[in-house]
Amino acid sequence: MLLTMLYDTHSIQLVKENIDSGTAEGIAYAIELLDVFLSEQLKQRVIPVLDDLTDSERIKRLEDIYPRIRLDNKLVIKFLINRDFTQTNRWTKACLLYQIGLLKMKEFQMDLIAHLFNPDKLISEVAAWAIFEISPQAYHENANRLGRIKKKELDHAIITKRGSEMLFERVLFLSRIEIFGNIPGIILSYLADISEETYLKEGTTIVLDNSQNNYFHLVINGQLELYKAGEKVADYQEGMFIGEMVVKEGFANFNLIKAKEPAQMMRFNKNQFYELLADHVKLADQFLVYI
User: Fold this and answer.
1) Residue 29 DSSP class
2) Which residues contact 277 (CB under 8 A, 6 or more apart)?
3) Which CATH architecture has domain 194-290?
4) Mean pLDDT of the 64-77 span
């Protein structure tokens, strides 16, 4: 569009049509046209972007015009974890904090302490876990500043459960199952926000009738059985989603799931789940394909 202000509109339109064709011949012809009428200054900026080059070759040709600051791995992490939220997202930051904890990178301890006080539970939990991995003493000293209730919650998630009940781990679990396999981590993090973990003893039942149940369920581990009118009709195991499609109208307690063995489940409030689907089209599309 900007080039039409400087050059013939018909010529630019012809270039656009050839690029939009997506074929190697079309793009090559578009580059030839640009090479004819673009100024030398613009050629150096535009043609490398369109040309059939590897990423490294493209960077090399553009580097003199757009010089880059050389950053090592640690500087990249430092830059990203302190980047403004308008230029990144909570999931990217959480992944970086988790990587710092895995590698026990002590030089980032002050950054982790700062994120310990982040109001976002996802980021705060991962920062607390990373601090504990690097220095349990530093974790206790700084987590005490959060207050007794918050400290107790973090101790349970990080020390007692060894991080297995963090929101971050819920997102990782969701990303591994079929129904959410192609959904970006940032969207799954919002799904984790509205989730609750529940535990069922062997033989425990949950009524699925719409009149008595306001939740969808996802099996984390264990075996469950679905009963309709007292008759077993299906088995559920790790990664399987139990939604409204399995429920049929009938008398009270018509639809039940029963724990065949001790089981752990994740549940989602139906209203909150549908609101999330309405806000994120990709999640809604994937969910519709699954059901």
Assistant:
1) H
2) 283, 284, 287
3) Sandwich (2.60)
4) 80
